[in-house]
């Protein structure tokens, strides 16, 4: 069984999800009426799409984290604070200008610039010193969190969705039949979440293409494998790493704007998304963009289905996935090939 998991990690994850779904279908109580069946189907579909869209948000946060932590070997435990800072900046820009899309640009630039400062003044001086990086970034995270608490207080903030993304859209999934007209009732879902899902897919595909099909991606991977040899060829590897760190931090800022749009921002969200990013990277595989996508999808689905069908054990289910992956495939579901 262990060999099968090692050879077919993605297939094993799919099989495990289907087995869990089958067990739930067997032991779940049967509906008493047609209306009960329709209601349960609607709840299931909503939990499914909520899990997928939450996974898209986790992927946007974890993709930057997997570049910094998994690929560049920099332990940045201030990544959750960068996420929340991007959300607050996006809120201020959208509230002052009314331009939702502009908030993404400003959050990416500001948080990316902060990432440049972190790489240049912190990580460049502590290369290969994981313990020092961990302790220093924990301190930086606490400082950033306190500054944000001082500026924005402990209230909840939510970025208003633009009018052209407001409201639900009908999906081609039938949830019931109207008694009056006999027409089919289709599942409705917020259009903003679907747009964010498509954006996450586009960003993920773009990142994979850059890392695996371009010269900059080749330089990053070569610098991680043998930094001294690459530097001997005349490549200024520190500049490359600063750009990658800035991009990863900027992605966290963009994810903060997205999280502030269809959820909310409040003190404590930085720790939540830092833990989620760690779990996603460990489950998917450090330094792997497809692994981050798969891990984010599994964690998002586990969190949503757990909150609907087993709210007491929702958090336990998330970490149980990580424990199982570490037990059978410690390198992650999608290991990076070098």
Strand order across the largest sheet: 1-2
> In total, how many beta strands?
2
How widely separated are the two ends? 25 Å
As residue ranges, the low-confidence spans are none
Number of helices: 13
Transmembrane segments: 12-31, 43-69, 100-123, 135-153, 191-211, 240-262, 274-301, 308-328
Main location: membrane
GO molecular function: transmembrane transporter activity
Keywords: Amino-acid transport, Cell membrane, Membrane, Transmembrane, Transmembrane helix, Transport
How would you portray this structure in words?
The chain has 338 residues and is mainly alpha-helical. The chain has a single domain, classed as ABC transporter involved in vitamin B12 uptake, BtuC. It is 72% helix and 5% strand. It is built from 13 helices and 2 strands, in the order H-H-H-H-H-H-E-E-H-H-H-H-H-H-H. The protein has a two-stranded antiparallel sheet with strand order 1-2. A hairpin with a 6-residue loop joins strand 1 (168-177) and strand 2 (184-190). Helix 4 (79-97) crosses helix 10 (237-262) and helix 11 (269-284) packs parallel to helix 13. The longest helix is centred in the first third of the chain and has 38 residues, at 34-71. The mean pLDDT is 82.
Structure summarized in a few sentences:
With about 350 residues, the protein is mainly alpha-helical. About 70% of the residues lie in helices and about 5% in strands.
């Amino acid at each position: 069984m262990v060999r099968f998991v090692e050879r077919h990690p993605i297939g094993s994850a799919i099989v495990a999800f289907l087995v869990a779904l089958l067990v739930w279908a067997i032991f779940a109580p049967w509906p008493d009426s047609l209306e009960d069946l329709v209601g349960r189907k609607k709840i299931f579909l909503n939990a499914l799409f909520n899990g997928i869209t939450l996974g898209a948000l986790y992927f946007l946060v974890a993709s930057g984290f997997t570049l910094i932590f998994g690929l560049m070997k920099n332990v940045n435990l201030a990544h959750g604070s960068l996420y929340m800072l991007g959300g607050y900046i996006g809120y201020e820009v959208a509230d002052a200008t009314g331009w939702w899309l502009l908030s993404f640009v400003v959050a990416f630039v500001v948080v990316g610039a902060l990432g440049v400062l972190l790489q240049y003044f912190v990580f460049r001086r502590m290369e290969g010193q994981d313990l020092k990086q961990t302790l220093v970034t924990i301190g930086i995270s606490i400082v950033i969190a306190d500054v944000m608490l001082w500026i924005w207080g402990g209230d909840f903030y939510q970025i208003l969705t633009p009018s052209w993304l407001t409201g639900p859209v009908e999906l081609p999934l039938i949830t019931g039949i109207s008694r009056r007209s006999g027409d089919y009732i289709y599942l409705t879902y917020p259009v903003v979440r679907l747009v964010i899902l498509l954006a996450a897919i586009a960003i993920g595909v773009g990142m994979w293409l850059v890392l695996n099909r371009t010269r900059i991606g080749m330089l990053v991977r070569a610098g991680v494998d043998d930094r001294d040899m690459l530097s001997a060829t005349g490549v200024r590897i520190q500049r490359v790493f600063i750009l990658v760190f800035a991009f990863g931090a900027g992605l966290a800022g963009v994810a903060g704007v997205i999280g502030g749009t269809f959820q909310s921002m409040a003190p404590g969200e930085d720790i939540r998304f830092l833990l989620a990013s760690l779990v996603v990277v460990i489950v998917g595989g450090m330094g792997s963009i497809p692994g981050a996508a798969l891990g984010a999808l599994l964690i998002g689905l586990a969190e949503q289905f757990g909150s609907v069908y087993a709210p007491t054990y929702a958090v336990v289910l998330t970490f149980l996935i990580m424990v199982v992956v570490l037990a059978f495939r410690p390198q992650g579901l999608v290991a990076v090939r070098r």
